[in-house]
Write a structure and sequence with these properties.
The structure is a single chain. The chain is an alpha+beta fold and 329 residues long. It contains 12 helices and 7 strands. The strands form 3 sheets. Strands 1-2-3 form a 3-stranded antiparallel beta sheet. A hairpin with a 2-residue loop joins strand 1 and strand 2. Helix 8 packs across helix 9.
Length: 329
């Protein structure tokens, strides 16, 4: 501020070619000519006013500059505060808001520590009460799981047997584990597809097709209650035909009331029940294998399902059958 006002006063009034000097010289020359041509008065008057205004501005700037207090210590203090802020941001947050939020949390924690008069004995007693409450809730959850497991296993077994696994057995086994946020139980599914075989861990014994159908059975049993919004079944029809394929198609359609169901299938009974169809084809393009996905509309859907029924030569009966299958959905 001092530098700016001093430079301004110098330019306006003190320099060799200052604004005041140049305006004064111009006024002197023009006022001498006013006696020769009175019309110049109209030009000289504004210049006189400018000279007076400039003189007043220079006086005001000098007073302002004289009143300024220069304190080298203040500059040093400000630089120190800026450095402190940079270090705080580097350690506690990207900006001042984050630093202040950290400060607030730290103050709350400190107040909690300083104001807490709780003794170790009281803390141990409180911990014992909490553990008792936790174990009681875990015990109640275990009881509910055992009750639900029997019903769930029975429903899944029934659904699996309708999916061409007539001798299937599905079990839910619950064993204890250290209590945690999800209770004190380890839950595992056991499965056997053939009579006489003991049920084994589902992850170890089921084939790909069995897993797909068993997943379908599980999802039908729990439809609408929980789970992800989209289900993908990759060739759930493996090894199926006739009535079993129709039952599978019906269950997929039932699931579609609760989820988005994507089914990759070669069976017309299953494809025909879908609401939307895509044809997936693989071909060689430019010497490289390429896969294309085409959305089918209207008669294209009927033609594709008919082709799945009859092969490449599609007759009227296949088209009629395809219309009937698609009409079921």
């Amino acid at each position: 501020l001092v530098t700016a006002t001093t430079d301004a006063v110098n330019s306006l009034d003190e320099a060799e070619s200052s604004a005041s000097g140049q305006i004064g010289a111009s006024l002197a020359a023009l006022e001498a000519c006013c006696s020769l041509d009175p019309e110049l008065e109209a030009v000289v008057d504004p210049l006189r006013e400018s000279a007076f205004a400039l003189e007043e501005a220079v006086r005001a700037l000098r007073r302002y500059c004289d009143d300024l207090e220069t304190d080298p210590g203040a500059l040093e203090e400000a630089a120190g505060r800026l450095d402190s802020l940079k270090r705080l941001r580097k350690k506690y947050g990207e900006d001042e808001s984050a630093v202040l939020a950290f400060l607030s949390n730290a103050q709350e924690e400190l107040a909690l520590l300083e104001q807490s008069g709780t003794s170790e004995k009281e803390l141990i007693a409180s911990l014992a009460i909490s553990e008792k409450d936790l174990n009681a809730k875990a015990g109640a959850l275990t009881a509910r799981r055992h009750k639900a497991a029997k019903e769930f296993a029975s429903v899944v077994t029934k659904q699996a047997r309708e999916l061409a696994m007539e001798k299937a057995e599905f079990e839910v086994r619950i064993s204890p584990k250290p209590v945690s946020a999800d209770g004190a139980d380890s839950v595992e599914f056991f499965f056997c597809a053939n009579p006489g075989d003991p049920p084994r861990s589902l992850a170890k014994v089921a084939s790909g097709g069995e897993i797909s159908r068993l997943m379908l059975a599980i999802k039908v049993a729990s439809a609408g209650r929980a789970g992800v919004p989209t289900l993908v079944f990759d060739e759930v029809d493996t090894g199926l035909g006739g009535r079993a394929a129709g039952v599978t198609a019906g269950k997929l359609h039932e699931l579609a009331a609760h989820y988005q169901v994507i089914a990759i299938s070669h069976l017309p009974q299953i494809a025909g029940r879908a609401d939307t169809h895509f044809r997936i084809e693989k071909a060689e393009v430019g010497g490289r294998s390429s896969t294309s996905v085409t959305a089918l509309e209207g008669d294209e859907r009927i033609s594709e399902v008919a082709r799945m029924l009859a092969g490449e030569k599609v007759g009227d009966s296949a088209l009629a059958n395809a219309r009937e299958l698609i009409g079921q959905s």
